[in-house]
Amino acid sequence: MRPYECEECRKSLNSGPDFIQHQIILTREKYNKFKESQKAFTNASRFFLNQNIHTSEKSFKGNYCVREFNNGTALIRHQRIHTVEKLYECNECGKAFSTSSIFRVHQRIHTGEKPNECKECGKAFHHSSYLSQHQRIHTGEKPYECKYCVRAFSNVSAFIRHQRIYTGEKPNKCKGCGRACSTVSILTAHQRIHSGEKPYVCKECGKAFRQSSELTQHQRIHTAEKPYRCKECGRVFCCSSELSRHKLIHADEKLYECKECGKTLSRDSVLTQHQKIHTGEKGWECNECGKVLNCVIYLTWHQ
0.70 cut: is pTM over it? Predict the structure, then answer.
């Protein structure tokens, strides 16, 4: 069966380009016979669109669904949804696309072109949808609400990732060990455990990391940046995990009590280290000089 059938003359054609050429021929014939409009048209495509304004007809119908279109070009674009025909291939990366508009947007990744600029802050994007998503930062709009909790999100991808906390969905599986991850980015970071890849390198000292967040946290050693501030006492920290541990100091309830002296501590790991004072145990040995210390932090400082 030939997938492209002309509704005008019932002629069937084998491919999209042949169908387009056939429609051009018909359009030219209609143009020559056309007397309804007194407008002058510079080409057959503008003429044909104008004729549809007069007739309000949608004469182009595909074989895959019930949708109808008022010009052959629109039908061809739509049919590619069904046929997965991808005529536009990127010379840079080889990726192919079904429409020229999507193809042009993709090319901006390689050219660096970002024509969609935010009027509020000047940040630019290569696609208008990314600009719309960004503008919600300024407007505060969060249209995607979680049905399980009170959280709302400005973009759909963050919303989907959040939902997986409750659904437990982990659709991204590691081929190396079978571990499932909730997002592609988590899977990518996990796979570097197997490959040993550490693409994020510190320009100051050359140390490499698997994740960009690890590099960002590490760089604060060099910059001395401490963006996380405790609201209770004003103390600042370089990472959120350190702030979370610190906040336990201000908590009313201290969960871990030493049976020897009655001292209460905020974490079980701190209690374990504290108890070595009473037992005399020194469990952390330096590989360089053999000195033994009773706290891993002291060992780190010593080394």
Answer: no
Q: 4-83 belongs to which CATH class?
A: alpha beta
Per-residue pLDDT tens over the stretch 137-184: 899 999 888 888 888 998 888 888 888 888 888 888 998 899 998 888
Q: Helices marked H in the chain — which ranges?
A: 16-33, 44-55, 72-83, 100-111, 128-139, 156-167, 184-195, 212-223, 240-250, 268-279, 296-302
Quick check: helix, strand or coil at residue 142? Answer: coil
Give the DSSP letter of residue 77.
H
pLDDT tens across 271-284, in order?
777 777 777 766 66
Burial of 157 (0-12, 13-18, 19+ CB in 10 A): exposed
Cα gap 198→268, rounded to integer Å = 32
CATH superfamily of 256-302: Classic Zinc Finger (3.30.160.60)
